[in-house]
Specification:
Radius of gyration: 38 Å
Shape: rod-shaped
Length: 88
């Protein structure tokens, strides 16, 4: 009789161990999934920020080029104006 109780006790303990291990495994999987989603969102936000910074840098470069072209056009106009005054 004591052997039977011992075997039943061992089986109950094994069942409880397996049950809680599986439950903890599910909790761990859920936690890891949440962490993965948060990391994915952070990477996505970082990529958006990097793209925005690239766009800002491109706009600044375009503005600088445009300003240089406007300065060159202004100098040409001034030259033409002075040239036209000296010819007449």
């Amino acid at each position: 009789m004591n052997h039977s109780l011992l075997i039943v006790f061992i089986f109950i303990n094994l069942f409880l161990i397996l049950y809680f291990k599986r439950k903890n495994s599910e909790n761990t999987k859920e936690h890891l999934y949440r962490v993965f989603c948060i990391q994915d969102q952070l990477v996505s936000e970082k990529n958006k920020k990097d793209k925005m910074n690239d766009s800002i840098n491109n706009l600044a470069e375009l503005e600088e080029n445009t300003q240089q072209q406007l300065t060159a056009i202004q100098l040409k106009l001034e030259f033409l104006h002075l040239f036209s005054k000296t010819n007449f």
